[in-house]
């Protein structure tokens, strides 16, 4: 067993953990990020980078490096409902320069942030280090224990930050239980080649056959089919042909490429959760990102909200850690929750209502094919007024954070 020390130990090398590590290291805070996997390559993770996150990339001076990585910018987000294409979100209505979302594999974004962090001597990232428990003394968390290929590791730290996701080991060790909003659907992720006949960039497809997502990546489409919660066993029993047929009913344009999904080995189930901790901190420990609040994949805002947590945390933790007082650090942790809890709750409420609406089956009846006269009036007069509001909601979220 070996021991190391750090001012801050971050459990989890996802967007929240690596971004916070980078920001703290820029301020001279000695920080150690522990990531249980040996690399960042995880398929079927969120890959939407929103305008607010792009603004942070600019502020960090990383834009040239970001643009050198293959990604797919989208200035507008369409949905096809009952065969009718709707231009729902128009990011060109946002202030320049970042008037679009872009789709970049999460591992590329994490590699970029980790490389930027490594340029600071106080940033340390250890891959293949899985946090297994906490070090506690005197009613306060003093560090973590981790499992590595070289044996057990103990990290002594003034502050532990849990950014280890929705199944957080740190949260479980603390005995914290989030309050959950029940969701009636899960997501089955898969990928297919781009059809030879180009498909316009479309995020959502909905109709009587169900709801699907098609995320354009440079060389293929990352897709998802929404299914009733805990229905995966029944779907498996029907066979892969039935799954492919259901996908094509929702997205007919995928008919020529759906055979690329050869078996259920090519499909990954994501159990959708919406939950939030009543309290995000305890003496010596702070929880952020999915460890504090699991977001639905609805609108792809999970990365954005995790990154916003990290920025808010860095802003108050840097002066608190410099104060060399435990109570100052605890007050800073409480301030992070006060800053981020309400905007998170507001977005989760919208996600929850959207899921309920989809589960009700009414989404396929929003618009007729062809549209009725009143529907055409709404499409012509009301929808153009909504698209800028939706752009701000999706692109920035509630209370976007900025670097100081």
Automatic annotation (TrEMBL):
The keyword Oxidoreductase applies. Keywords: Oxidoreductase. Residues 6-348 form the FAD-binding domain. The keyword Transferase does not apply. It comes from the Bacteria. InterPro entries: FAD-bd, FAD/NAD-bd_sf, PheA/TfdB_FAD_monoxygenase. PANTHER family: 3-(3-HYDROXY-PHENYL)PROPIONATE/3-HYDROXYCINNAMIC ACID HYDROXYLASE (PTHR43476), FAD-DEPENDENT MONOOXYGENASE (PTHR43476:SF5). This is FAD-dependent oxidoreductase.
């Amino acid at each position: 067993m070996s021991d190391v020390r750090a001012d801050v130990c971050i459990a989890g090398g996802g967007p929240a953990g690596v971004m916070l590590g980078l920001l703290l290291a820029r301020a001279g805070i000695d920080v150690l990020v522990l990531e249980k996997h040996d690399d960042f390559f995880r398929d079927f993770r969120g890959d939407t980078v929103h305008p607010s996150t792009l603004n942070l990339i600019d502020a960090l001076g990383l834009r040239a490096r970001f643009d050198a990585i293959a990604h797919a910018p989208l200035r507008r987000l369409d949905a096809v409902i009952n065969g009718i294409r709707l231009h729902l979100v128009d990011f060109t209505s946002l202030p320049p320069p970042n008037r679009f979302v872009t789709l970049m594999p999460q591992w590329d974004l994490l590699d970029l942030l980790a490389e930027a962090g490594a340029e600071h001597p106080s940033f340390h990232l250890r891959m293949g280090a899985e946090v297994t428990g906490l070090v506690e003394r005197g009613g306060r968390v003093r560090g973590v224990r981790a499992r590595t290929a070289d044996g057990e590791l103990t990290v002594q730290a003034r502050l532990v930050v849990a950014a280890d996701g929705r199944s957080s080991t740190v949260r479980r060790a603390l005995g914290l239980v989030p309050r959950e909003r029940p969701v009636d659907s899960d997501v089955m992720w898969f990928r297919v080649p781009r059809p030879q006949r180009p498909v316009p960039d479309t995020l959502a497809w909905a109709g009587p056959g169900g709801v699907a997502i098609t995320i354009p990546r440079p060389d293929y489409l990352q897709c998802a089919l929404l299914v009733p919660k805990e229905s995966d066993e029944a779907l498996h029993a029907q066979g892969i042909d039935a799954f492919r047929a259901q996908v094509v009913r929702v997205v007919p344009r995928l008919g020529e490429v759906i055979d690329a999904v050869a078996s259920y080995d090519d499909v990954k189930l994501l159990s959708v959760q919406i939950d939030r901790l009543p309290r995000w901190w305890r003496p010596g420990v702070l929880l952020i990102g999915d460890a504090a609040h699991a977001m639905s994949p609805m609108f792809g805002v999970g990365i954005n909200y995790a990154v916003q947590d990290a920025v808010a945390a860095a802003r108050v933790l840097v002066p608190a850690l410099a104060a060399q007082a435990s109570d100052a650090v605890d007050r800073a942790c409480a301030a992070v929750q006060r800053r981020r809890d309400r905007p998170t709750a507001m977005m989760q409420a919208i996600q929850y209502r959207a899921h309920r609406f989809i589960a009700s089956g009414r989404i396929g009846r929003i618009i007729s094919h062809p549209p009725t006269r009143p529907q055409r009036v709404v499409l012509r007069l009301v929808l153009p007024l909504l698209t800028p509001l939706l752009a701000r909601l999706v692109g920035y979220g509630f209370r976007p954070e900025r670097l100081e």
